[in-house]
Structure formats: C-alpha cells, structure tokens
Amino acid sequence: MRRENIDQLVKVEYHQVVSCPLKDNQFSFFQIIYVICGEGFLKINNNTASYSKGSLILLTPNDQHNLEVIEHTELLLVKFSERYVKDYKWNSINSMECLLYGASYLSGCILQNKPDVILVDSIVSSLLHGINHPDLFQEELTLHYVNALIVIAARNISKMRVAHVASNTDKRVLDIINYIQGNIHDPALLKVSSIAHKFGFSESYLGSYFKKQCGETIQHYILNYKMRLIEHRLLFSDMRINEIVSEFGFSDESHLNKFFKKTHVMSLTEFRKTKGRVAMQA
C-alpha cells in the first residue's frame, strides 16, 4: 500500500483520469475530492459508494481507499494537513478536526445541504481559475477558498452525523447542537439546566424535545461528542493527558480516566498505546 505525504499545509490539484489514480492508497492528510465530471465508484475503508458530477467527498488521514473509474473523470483535489486544521483560528467552530474526522464514518458524497451546492460549485470554479490563471496574491486567495470548502464540509458532516434528525426538523435543535459543540469544554454550560435556560425550555421539556428530535437523550449526545473529541486527541495529537484534563474541565487525570473507562474499559494511556499504534499502521 502506498502512503502519500504532503510537504505543505495546503495543496490544490486538478486531475483528468481514465483509469484508477487512487488504488490501495493511504494519505497522512485530509483530502477533499470534488468531481467536476465523470462517473465511477470510490471504496473507502471497505465501504463502496458511487460518484458522479458534483460529488464532494472527504478523505481523512489513514483512510484506505481506491477509485474505480467508469467514465472519463475530472477531479479537483484539495489536500490539507492535520496541523493546518488544528492551528487555524475557526471563529465559531469548536474542534473542527473532530467534525472532519466524522467523515470516516460516512461514505460517498457529503454534500447533502442543497443550498451549499451552488457555493461549492462557485468555489471550485474559483480554485480552477487560480490554477489556470495564477496572479498576484494567488496563495492568499486559494487559502480563503479552501477554508470555505472546509467549513462547508464540516457543516454538512455535522448535519449528517446527528442521528435521526429529519431534513425538516425544528431549527432549534440544530441551534442546541451547535451550542453544545461550541461549549463542549465548559462543563457548567453543558448542564441541562444551563441549556434549558439558554433556550427558554424547562429541563423536563428539553429532555423529551431533544430525544424526540434526535433519537437519543441530550446527556447521551453530550457524552458521545465529548468522547469522540478525547479519542481524537489521544489518537491524532501529541497532547499530554493533563492537557486533555484541563481542556475538557475535568478535576484531575483520575476523574477523566474514570469517565473514559465507562466506555472503553481501559485507561487513556492504554487506549493511546493500543489504538494509536493500530491507527498508524492501518
């Protein structure tokens, strides 16, 4: 299996393919694939999905994938490193990398929010224009376009990852989810009483409302989202355990380990050693 790295934070490429350019590949970076034209199949982590014109696909680091081309295909590839995602100051999006890693649980096109289709088409056209007609300050413009694509990808993944939420769901539940994700590092703001007060609900009504809309309790959603963040810190960052303790507002390492063991039946250190090794070798 070929493993590819990039020597820069962001890289944009245009490709025309008539046969498979991505066969049993693995990248050390994120990659957004936009299908300009063509048809075929993309296999990601043993899940196969078709692609066609307008498909937007996100590959995460360590995904295993290959492309089967049926019809002449043109692709725009947007590659960006984990460090770029972590270091960039996303104004209102907390833990961007966790949202993006959510794509590893999905397959196929992530562009499900119809209003975003026009935005993505415009951004892709602008990136292609920059490739074909480079000009002054082109790098700065490219970074702005890439950032916009990343945010759109995160928005679509966020909506897709909320279990059982219908497309016509009450907008308030999406606001509640955004609030939870934005304040996931502050335990006081994640109390049901705090959330209920923020959105003008009683605590009992908030509980039944959230479960009806999302198919799970609000406490379960908060626990799972926080756990995914901690898992990604352990697997894909060099953060120390005490730094993770501080980030998520736990009183000490023992408190965090107790929380973590309820789900994983192993300590944070054991998880990092065993699962982290698997992730690097996969």
Offer a quick outline of the entry:
This protein is an alpha+beta fold and 282 residues long.
What's the SSE blueprint?
Blueprint: E1 2-4, E2 10-17, E3 25-27, E4 30-44, E5 47-51, E6 56-59, E7 64-80, H1 82-87, H2 96-101, H3 114-132, H4 138-160, H5 171-182, H6 192-199, H7 203-214, H8 218-236, H9 241-247, H10 253-264, H11 268-281
Parallel strand pairs: 1-3
Antiparallel strand pairs: 2-7, 3-7, 4-5, 4-6, 4-7
Helix pairs in contact: 3-4, 6-7, 8-11
Structure description:
This protein is α+β, with helices and mostly antiparallel strands. It is built from eleven helices and seven strands. Strands 1, 2, 3, 4, 5, 6 and 7 form a seven-stranded mixed β-sheet that branches. The longest helix has 23 residues, at 138-160. It is globular and about 55 Å long. The protein starts with a strand and ends with a helix. Residues 277-282 have low confidence and may be disordered.
